Amino acid sequence: MKRFFLLLVLSLPLAASAQKLTESAIDDISTKMAATFLKLNDPALVFVTEQMSRTGAGGLEIDKTMQDLKKDPATIDAALKFLYQYSDCDRQTFITNLRAMDIKSGNVFPIATYTVNKYKNEAKELIDEKGALYKSGAIPKAITLMVAPPANMNQATAANLEGTPPAAAQATQQAAGAPATINTTAAGVESADTRNWDVRLVFGMTKPDQLLDLYGKQNVELRDATDFDGNDAGKAWVVYPDTENEMAVVFYKDSTKTITFGQENAKWRAPFGIKPGDPVDKVQKVNGRGFRINGFEWTNGGTVQSFDGGQLDNKGVHLLFRALNTGDPKLYDSFTGEKSFRSDASGVKKLGVIVEKVQFRTGN
Predict the structure, then answer these.
(1) pTM for this one?
(2) Residue 10: phi, psi to the nearest 5?
(3) Which of 118, 218, 262, 263 could form a disulfide with 357 if both were Cys (CB 3.0 to 4.6 A apart)?
(4) What's the sign of the alpha-carbon dihedral 49, 54, 55, 57?
């Protein structure tokens, strides 16, 4: 009996360490991931960053987030989760990847134990998701730049993008010159569109010149901007105007900005994976819970009143919804006017509520 109690006492510190990371471990993983991230072409960190951005766990300005993960415990957890996913949820592979980032030997085991225990029940789901993401192209297998390029992309060449693989340099340079048409081979056969559709490149910008340099002056126009209610919102720099990939960017004096999409077939890749045309239940799934929408045909009609503390809350994500099936007056009237309704309310699915516009606001 005494031996049992002795073993129990000795095991308590190990159990506790598996549930909580020390400040030393948190600082270590934050510092080392930041250093690896800045190399731009590390396969593990490319995957982690793509997942952080795709799911929204890294916020809108992913480059800043990845360079200071320790600011938010939830962000550290997400980064470790996606590194574990990249490691095929295999403990030894995960440890190998931690050591590849030069994590201190005294921190490797506690970090591995913490992560494996935290996500062991999600292992199969994470492995299946990784395969599906690669198969669908949601996360490219080819390595691409993870942060915003230099302000003057026309001067950036493969030579000064040191350490960047040829494919990534080529994709970035083509995004800079960005002709509106897809490249063709000498034989006249169309090749894949290699323009960079990652919205994160825009999140890091502070002035319109960077937008013009990246996408080409011929592909950007300055136009009047309106908010979701149709009110004047100043001027917007519109990328690929009047096409399915139209994107409007408004720059403010405090270096914040809004980025708006309203086309259902746009190619842009943005945090959370939400796009115009998505049904309300997809947004609800991303948010992790139901949320409140302002009644249609009224001030702020169809906009999100509150994400009710979900994953999208306070993340700078603003959505405008519309109803497809308005032929039933009684049903539609129950969701219009000066009121709000829950996204999971009875009748919402029948009404065919979908995302009409997506807007990201940095600095919020």
Answers:
(1) 0.62
(2) -65, -30
(3) 262
(4) positive
CA nearest 302: which of 227, 221, 251?
A: 227
Same domain, 115 and 160: no
Cα–Cα distance, 330 to 310 (Å, whole number): 31
Q: Which two tokens stand for residue 7?
A: 């073993």
Domain assignment of residue 247, given as a range: 153-261
Which residue has tokens 């302002």?
294
Token output for 69: 């993960």
Give the number of residues written for the chain. 364
Which residue, among 340, 338, 335, has the nearest Cα to 324 in the 3D structure? 335
276-311 tens-digit pLDDT? 999 999 999 888 899 999 999 998 999 999 999 888
Q: How many domains does the chain have?
A: 3
Residue 353 phi/psi, 5-degree rounding, is -80, 125
The letter for the amino acid at 311 is Q
Structure-block tokens of residue 10: 């000795």
pLDDT digits (tens, 9 = 90+) for 49-74: 888 887 778 777 777 888 889 888 88
What is the identity of the amino acid at 226?
Answer: T
